[in-house]
Amino acid sequence: MLKQSIVAVFALFLSSVLFFPVSKVDADDNVGFSVGAQLPENQLDTDHSYFDLRMHPGQQQDIQTIIYNHEQNDITVKVSVYNAFTNSNGLIVYEDREETDPSLKHPITDLVSLKEKKVTIPAEKSVSVTASLDMPEEEFDGIKLGGLHFEKVPDDEIASKGVNVQNKYAYVIGLQLSENNNEVTPKLQLRSVKPTVENHRTAVVAKLRNIQPALAENMRIRGKVFKKKGEKPIKELEKANVNMAPNSDMDVVIDWENNPLEEGYYRLELQASNEKDEWKWEKVFTIGEEAKDFNKEAVELETNNNRKAWYIAGISVLIIIILILLVYIWRLKRTGK
């Protein structure tokens, strides 16, 4: 019997710095477990359930979280440390990525180590998990942002029956570290503009960078693409409520609306702003021969060839109908005679 893999991913962000703060952690009926942070004395705001710690250079500290098992059987939970990133929707996420922005010095994953990466929790019991912080010797301004990720290991019993059902449930507890009150403001840069295929659709992606250890919050992004010397935009973008993690990059996706990418020179005008800051960029970019491969990869692409084919087919059908009518009229006249 062929095994079928059914994967249901259910990510619950218990706390996300400044965006989803919660003061109480409840168990979801489908999850079967919950987690809670044991806030230490150097917690800056005790109303938050995530770690917001004031540290100092060279400091070493252990922090604890509690995993609660609400099921009537033992469960195993995998524990990981993730850095904060920004996805293309303008949301701060905690993911397992190897590559970080070059501006990020001493990421959370370098500062935090876990004594146990897999923990078994007895039925209806709880277990404490320890993470060790080891701060760099030199002081830093701004914040370091990441999260502790808790994922329930799927039950393998069903797999032996021929169907591999993997229900992946995860919690993330935010971890924010700072060492002083020195004000740091976000600084955005436009890194590159390139054609691509995004979710099987042709697009142009502008990569933005926040090179400062500060959150860029509640931004509105507007973009217009022109032919290099054109005055009328051929594509436009507007996105609101965009947030960027400290020292992270973001793909700003300009959808090409199922149109083929055409080789040539283009110009992007991009703007990002919130109540405090505003950034503007203008960049000329090229769509080269790679457009052919992207167009082939895209799904439901409306090409000129397709439109031409439909046009020819329509004309052909019309000519056939006219010929049939002419023959019919000619026969009627002959019958009348």
UniProtKB/TrEMBL annotation:
Sections of the chain in a coiled coil: none
Presence of keyword Nucleotide-binding: no
Keywords noted in UniProt: Membrane, Signal, Transmembrane, Transmembrane helix
One Pfam family named in its UniProt record: WxLIP_HBD
WxL Interacting Protein peptidoglycan binding domain segment(s): 33-152
Chain segments annotated as transmembrane: 309-330
Keyword Transmembrane helix: yes
Domain WxL Interacting Protein host binding: 161-296
The protein's name in its UniProt record: DUF916 and DUF3324 domain-containing protein
Organism: Lentibacillus cibarius
